[in-house]
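Summary for the funding panel

The consortium committed to producing paired sequence-structure records for every protein in the target list. Below we show the first two records in order, beginning with the earlier of the two.
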Amino acid sequence: MHIMSMRDGSYFPPEGGFRTFVLLWAFQSLAAFGFQITSFALTVWLTTGLYPGPEQKALLAAALSMVGLAFSLPSVLVAPLAGILVDRTDRKTVMFWANVGSGLVSLSLAVVLAMGALRLWIVVAAMVLYGLLQCLHTSAFDTSYAMLVRPSELPRANGMMQTVMSIAGILSPGIAAGLMALPGVLDKSPNQTWVAGLLARVPNGAVLPVAVDALVVFIAAGSLLFLRIPSPRASAEKGRPSLVADIREGMTFIGRRRGLLWLLATFAVINFCSAPAGVLRPMIVRDNLAGDYARLGLSYEGVLALMTSAGSIGGVIGGFAVTAWGGLRRKRVYGVLVPLVIVGLTQVVFGLSTGIYVSVGAIALISFLIPFANSHSQSIWQTVTPHEMQGRVFAVRRVAAQFTSPLGTALSGVLGAVDPGLAVALCGGVAAAVSLLQFGNRKVTTLEDDVPSPVSGEAAS
């Protein structure tokens, strides 16, 4: 366990820290890759297997909402405790066991699928576990790489971080769809090896993607055993405060900075409004775009995979663009607000579109812009928050910014039963309007001017 004292207020990343970060980033991308495969496979199972009929629109909307809520709500609820945990313990250990736990959940799902016993309540329970474990992993991950790279390298590192889910998203839909179709293809093959024959007898195509998820997550966990990742520790003289005191300290740090509060409020609205776009996307593809993809001779799974992959490619390009550029050096808040306004307006286009190309282009543009907003926001927070406080401060920040996402997910179950496309468009309009209003809010636009750089022993923001 490598815990570094921060008692003198100074800290220098270890020699070769950025190289370690790159290795950490690469192997943990495998974990993100695996979860995307499972998520896609389960979405297809729900949409085409459990509730395939048009008359089941309300049931499907409710199921998608329940699954999304099961994943996001636990993450928000346990974020404060997760933040305290990663401030008090070795962060690499937290990441390792979070990876192992996720792998075990995926392995269990694969077994249940192979037995033909998967039910909606099992998917919901699995998503709860995924949400809890990913919350722990994210809390440890987000605070670990700030210890590995120099402050001047943070925008570049954050740009790379924004590509993690996007890189996974590029390959995972196509691979998941291919793995799901593999048993049927092998079953029709005239020449079969014993392996092909065994795979051909898989009762549910979703078994293979979920099993692959378990494998790659276990590989990601194993990689951590060979990486040295330092963890900070507050001054020993202070003793160990209570959990309530830790949470209060994180809340106080943010509460004294009005600009940060307004920024959090903006993200709270954005997360509320973007949730329906994610939850209802399978329904929008199936219903709004059905005429267009039928005319082109495409399948539902193919269009959904195309849209997911296009969005992921946009995210990777955006992440690489931020990485190569390095981000804004000052007035980073504009690097947050400008992309958010465009994202909201593009969501309106996506919700109202009935054409595949326009819809795919809208998703790609949204995904391209999100890394710009997130990397600039993350850089602001990492710069102004002391390393030994980042766990609890980021946890409070995560709750404040993301507690609305489960609400938006729950609302999706109602909106999806009426008009999914119109609901997504209206939410996009609200997100764009709220982001645009912040340009006139001096507390936000002067956020970095009002916040000095951190000094010895004192948190500044």
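The next record, for a separate protein in the list, is shown here:
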Amino acid sequence: MKALEKIYEGKAKILYTTSESNRLIQYFKDDATAFNAQKKGTIVNKGVINCAVSSEIFKFLETKGIQTHFVEKLSDREMLVKKVQIIPIEVVVRNAVAGSLAKRTGRPEGEKLSETLVEWYYKDDALGDPMVNRDHIRIFKWASDAEMTEIEKKAKKINTLLVPYFETRGIQLVDYKLEFGRSPEGILLADEITPDGCRLWDMKTKEKMDKDRFRFDLGKVEESYQEIFKRICK
């Protein structure tokens, strides 16, 4: 399967058509952005690591009954995926307080939540991906009530699978972003699951192992991504 026409280029990935109308190639870039693209840079081999990590996680989730857009890993940077209509909502799943949740609530970073917290954000870079609620989503017809209920159920099931998956690799899954898309098969988990969109902390040292290292100039960015790769893919 070869990449044909470029149909979309985002901050971290490019999508290409293929010879099959219902299949796309998702190409992972080394470009890194933060704070709604106000900060830009490059993380060496990030695309290779993210393609490998996301492929492994999607394959794991598929074995547990989670339908995803993943078909196969084609190369170091290319993933063959099912074509979906992306629902313009980022679903953020939180297991502990960090990032914007700490800022909004004044709670200490790292505080464990008593239950899984699911938040909704409207996907719009120009607006800074604002936080929204289910009424906004329904009223503006970004998704139906039934779709939101299904997505939330899927997100919580994914969380029950991923928390122990990461723990067995010595990683605390603090929070992470999920995206979903409509397809003839139903609503599928789409996009990626990588250190770009997850907060991943070493379970023993609590050292950050994700894009926060780039975001806040913490150093050892490439080394942290490589460590995630080693724990997930080897």
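Regarding this second record: The chain has six helices and 14 strands. The radius of gyration is 17 Å.
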